[in-house]
Write a structure and sequence with these properties.
Elements (H helix, E strand, L loop, with lengths): L2 H13 L2 H7 L4 H15 L4 E4 L2 E4 L1 H25 L7 E8 H18 L3 E8 L1 H9 L5 E12 L2 E7 L7 E14 L12 E3 L9 E3 L5 H12 L6 E4 L3 H9 L5 E4 H7 L6 E5 L2 E11 L7 H24 L1
Length: about 325
Amino acid sequence: MDIKHLNALIAIAEAGSISRAAEQIYIAQPALSNRLGALEDELGVKLFVRSHKGVTLTDAGQKVYAHAKVIVKSANAVLEDVKESTGQPVGNVAVGCQHSLAGIIGAGIMQQVVGRYPGIKLDFRSGNTEELFKSLSNSNIDMAVVHKDVSIYKDDEKVHMESLFTASALEHHPLFEEEILFVSSEALTDQKQPGVSSIPIEALKQVRLVVPPINHAITRNLDWIASAGGVEMNYIGHSDSVDLIFKLVASGFCCSILPRQTINDLDPEGNLHYYRIDNYRIMRSITLCCSPYLHMHSSSTAVKDGVIEFVRQELVEQKTSS
């Protein structure tokens, strides 16, 4: 089975079109079609269903695609191991990251990895949880920094927890926890003591709220607190853009609820006011999820170690100093 034929299958499946795949991998379309045809002849099955919209994998094609990703990755690992005779890891490594964290840690990860391992080419991508786990399962990325679960504490007792995913096949490396805080452009309490103060849950009835979408974990857990306190929130809008929500809050248009790391990043001067709600603490855990095939590549292992080191040191230090 020719690696070029498997690469052709992968390129077409991910592009959704033979012509688009040919453009992306810089090969003539007839040549790419011939490679796909040769693979289909060898296997004795059709791998794609053709339509005017492009191509989609057949059931057999999906199985072959999954194996092809592993085979090609293993073949690349052989080449990388040979090149690493100099002692420095080399190769291409794809790292995914939640949208809300990408702007905070992306530059630091890129600088640390490239600075330490000049032979590694890092492909840094952002997405939501569903997109990142799909990419991990398809071996399109090697690892991803994602939110794992959300917990609510009351007087240091955990009273509620929501797991955001269960994927036992993946390798998990806990990084840190971030607190989700209520944010306002105006002071809502006269409390002067340092640290995060608390506002009564009844205060939320008096403010306009723009929060993440209804199905977002942050919003679901805010609703849990509201339900526990018998309060109905005054939602005037939803957005999946952290930057938009922050700008609306900063302008005084509304209040919201945002991760502490995001607040630190977007409001370094501390112009906004942030609070816990009725002494509840909403904590979200951040973890590095890795493909089960990560060990095949010393370059991927090096990046994994670099990501863990950077996030644990830099972000935890930022959290401690804020």
